[in-house]
Write a structure and sequence with these properties.
The structure is a homodimer of 335-residue chains.
Chain A (H helix, E strand, L loop, with lengths): L6 E8 L17 E6 L2 E6 L2 E6 L7 H10 L1 E8 L10 H21 L4 E5 L6 H13 L5 E5 L1 E2 L2 E2 L6 H10 L2 E5 L13 H22 L2 H4 L5 E3 L6 H14 L7 H5 L3 E3 L5 H11 L4 E2 L13 H6 L5 H16 L2 H4 L2
Parallel strand pairs in A: 1-5, 5-6, 6-7, 7-10, 10-11, 11-12, 12-13
Antiparallel strand pairs in A: 2-3, 3-4, 8-9
Helix pairs in contact in A: 3-4, 5-7
Chain lengths: 335, 335
């Protein structure tokens, strides 16, 4: 590939450097706060240290340097998932979501052309989330929203989220599903590390599977929806979902056909599985995603995506074409 | 391939046609009972109909006909997983497990050379399960045991199961891990169908991942352990487990290296993913498994495994070589 072929990184997180005060005592134990001491910044959730962050999370200078170094033309910014705040009252969560959305909007405005944004909405209240989508597009110039792989323990395919999906389809807002508080972790004692490494991708697969089996993608066929961590483990269970679908009478599109209308990021750290996913399971539907700027992120993304053995069209797709289609900008570029 | 190349099907279930009475009132609500009316047989768990079964589950005549029709030389028999009975008192569970083991032993004896057996042990009491293993091998001629993907909600990598794994390694008993009562289903309301289709393979991946991250395979490096449903979704998350392992200092073997010492059945209903799994992710470690005789089973297994595009060594491996190694009979055949 030409070194000029753009890279678009769809899985990149941000976090505000400061937060408003908790609106009332009840929310305080789950409210974020940045604890800054010299060069160290610790994002606290209530009185619990959640993650060490540096200014790559809120400023654009180092971020742009890193993008230039890595050949990333555009980063698609989404909130650190813990900020999605499904565990707060919807009114409180909306305040926090809008704080993240404002930050993303500022970062987009600071470097024209280099960023797109996926905002946050309080999806524990689907109607409220639906009402916010037009504002996110018009006031904040966001391309879509990031949502959790489950919403406070509820599966994404639950029909109660339909008003949100309907509004996203209507507004043409992309949806990026990111692992968050895996359902399985509520039922078994596991370490935070095991949850992040093993349960994150399994929860993403569970969310995607529930959207498929509950028919959400049949109800909203123009939805542009993408999944973190390569769709988690979805690619490994589509055959079984198809077998069950056949046993139930083969109505509508098969699960694997539905999966090929979704998008998946490349964030699997495994050239073998990624080649299988991007070239055979869901061809043309995988976009670059690195998890920048967190320690686990995929480094040298250009080297990674170019090394997995895709043909030229496959490399173009994973480098930028799938991302543009996901973001709703595909038509502009395909001329 | 020559049509004479043997097929060994490692994922085949049986169930007794009758059960002893519940030993006491406390166990009755979770005790199995066969309710037979004319041609219909319903396995009840307590007063709850669990599954319709026919005589393929306990007799060998039709089973052998089906095997001959399908070119299956050997079936490896394991109990219907619901009979593993981790939810009963260990003494009661042992009685039920031994009832299944006796049935498997009778079926093996009824058709010499055509069956192998994977028995049941009350793994909610690991020491008790460990003590039973020598009897299972000597009295019942079983090659190993079937266990759940979690044990009453506890992860397989939990060190409390070490006495069992130590005994299995010592006795040379194979372990077949089968999806059962997925952990995630305890934390979210999903249908039985969704649980069986989507959560079964995710729970298998969770169990396998916990064995890897908790170091069980490092403590018991000679264990022969296989996983149902193609290892569930494990193949899709190994890159992420490896990335975490590198971040933690790369001690011992990487998760993907450990995975290549495990076995996986072919029961994924997807030639694309199976080819990726069997030829690239865990080459040589996949054996045929159909889920016979249940409605979801893989039909025409010879056609299926021959059609996925493996080279000759790969086809031989999935047809019988990996199964023989898993069963501890590899040395006899490799001469």
């Amino acid at each position: 590939m030409s070194p000029m072929t753009p890279l678009i990184d769809v899985h990149c997180h941000v976090a505000p450097s400061t937060f408003p005060r908790a609106p009332h005592e009840r929310a305080a134990s789950q409210w974020p706060c940045m604890h800054a001491t010299g060069s160290s910044n610790t994002l606290m959730i209530g009185d619990r240290p959640f993650r060490e962050l540096d200014d790559r999370s809120w400023a654009t200078a180092r971020r742009l340097e890193d993008m230039d170094r890595d050949g990333v033309a555009i980063q698609v910014l989404s909130p650190m998932p813990e900020l999605l705040s499904y565990w707060l009252d919807p009114t409180d969560a909306e305040q926090l979501c809008m704080h993240s959305n404002e930050q993303i909007a500022r970062m987009i405005a600071s470097a024209p052309g280099r960023f797109r944004g996926l905002g946050a909405v309080p999806l524990q209240d689907p109607e409220r989330a639906a009402r916010l989508l037009p504002r996110l597009r018009r006031e904040f110039a966001l391309s879509g929203v990031e949502i959790g792989s489950n919403i406070g323990g509820e599966m994404l395919g639950n029909a109660r989220f339909d008003p949100f999906f309907a509004a996203a389809q209507e507004e043409g807002m992309a949806i990026f599903v990111h692992a968050l508080h895996p359902v399985a972790a509520k039922a078994v004692a596991v370490s935070a590390t095991f949850s992040a490494l093993a349960l994150f991708p399994l929860d993403v697969a569970m969310g995607a599977a529930s959207l498929i089996t509950e028919g959400a993608l049949e109800r909203f066929p123009r939805l542009r929806i993408g999944f973190s961590h390569g769709g988690g483990a979805l690619g490994a269970i589509l055959g079984r979902l198809d077998q069950g679908w056949r046993a139930q009478g083969s109505r509508g599109r098969s699960p694997s056909e539905q999966a090929r209308t979704m998008f998946f990021d490349s964030n699997v750290y495994d050239a073998t599985y990624l080649r299988c996913l991007a070239s055979e399971i869901v061809p043309g539907r995988v976009f670059l995603g690195t998890d920048y700027p967190y320690p686990i992120m995929q480094r040298d993304p250009a080297v990674f995506v170019d090394s997995i053995g895709l043909n030229e069209a496959g490399v173009e797709s994973i480098r930028y074409r799938a991302a543009l289609t996901f973001l709703g900008e595909g038509a502009h570029r395909s001329e």
